[in-house]
User: Which sequence fits this backbone?
């Protein structure tokens, strides 16, 4: 499929999705958001795709936010619709059944930070700068950022970042738990790929269940989340992969998972 604003490449089961509007620091206009959705929707049922890395084109930005030129035209009605559509697309990524890693290669601001927050794991280059500067434009995050950031960092830190609109560097982002890991720029993609491939070597049904337990479970009261965990655990016990994983351990050999 031909895309105008993103590039895709699948290599040995790993899909790399590059947001590619470098002239505007990969800002997310409506067309780009739809292309991101199309890529994930197709990858969801594509058995060749086992994991996804999301990154930004060029050497400056992951994504510098929603496209401010488009935002400036919003009315109360279209603003709400755009926010809801973006929330839907990023929630689709958050609930994606295969691991999604953000490789944050530069500015991850506003909607770009929200996109990274929707990914399961965030790895940042030392050059990365993250933030939710929406209040500097007189708006608030609208792609789930108020909710995801508060859940990830706690309300106090989230409110500080959202209400000041401050950008923070990669080291500070790692210190507060906004990113998992910081690496030199030239090692970013290799590090993200290494992590993706490690996860791809594990039982895919187990990884899928783990993502569901954490992502769906964290929106539930603890007892319901634990019920979900136990149910998924029980389901896995019926899989060939679970039997293979245990058997391989007892036979002192690496497991060969088939996703069945
Ligand atoms: N939208 C549109 N164009 C952008 C954006 C953006 N978000 N960010 C950068 N650009 C453009 C610039 O206008 C500039 O274009 P041109 O060359 O034609 O002048 C080009 O990219 C390069 O940018 P700069 O010259 O500004 O580069 P600098 O290195 O000087 O600065 C910054 C880089 C600091 C990243 C700066 O570009 C900046 O502050 N960008 C805006 C960051 C921002 O405020 N992001 C939040 C946007 S709001 C948002 O994301 C809301 C999400 C929820 C939406 C809900 C739907 C209703």
Assistant:
């Amino acid at each position: 499929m031909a895309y105008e604003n993103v590039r895709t490449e699948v290599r040995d089961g790993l899909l790399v999705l590059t947001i590619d509007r470098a002239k505007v620091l990969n800002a997310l206009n409506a067309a780009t958001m739809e292309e991101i959705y199309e890529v994930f929707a197709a990858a969801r049922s594509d058995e060749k795709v086992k994991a996804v890395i999301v990154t930004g084109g060029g050497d400056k930005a992951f994504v510098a936010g929603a496209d401010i030129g488009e935002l400036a035209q919003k009315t109360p009605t279209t603003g709400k619709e755009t926010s809801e559509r973006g929330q839907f697309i990023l929630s689709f990524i958050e609930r994606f059944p295969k691991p999604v890693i953000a490789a944050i290669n530069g500015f991850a601001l506003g909607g770009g930070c929200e996109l990274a927050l929707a990914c399961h794991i965030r790895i940042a280059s030392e050059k990365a700068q993250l933030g939710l500067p929406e209040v500097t434009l007189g708006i608030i995050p609208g792609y789930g950022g108020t909710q995801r950031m508060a859940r990830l960092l706690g309300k106090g830190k989230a409110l500080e970042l959202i209400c000041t609109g401050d950008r923070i560097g990669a080291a500070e982002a790692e210190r507060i738990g906004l990113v998992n890991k910081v690496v030199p720029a030239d090692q970013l993609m290799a590090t993200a790929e290494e992590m993706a491939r490690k996860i791809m070597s594990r039982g895919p049904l187990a990884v899928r269940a783990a993502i569901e337990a954490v992502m769906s479970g964290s929106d539930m009261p603890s007892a319901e989340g634990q019920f979900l965990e136990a149910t998924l655990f029980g389901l896995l016990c019926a899989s060939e992969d679970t039997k293979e994983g245990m058997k391989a351990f007892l036979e002192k050999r690496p497991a060969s998972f088939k996703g069945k």
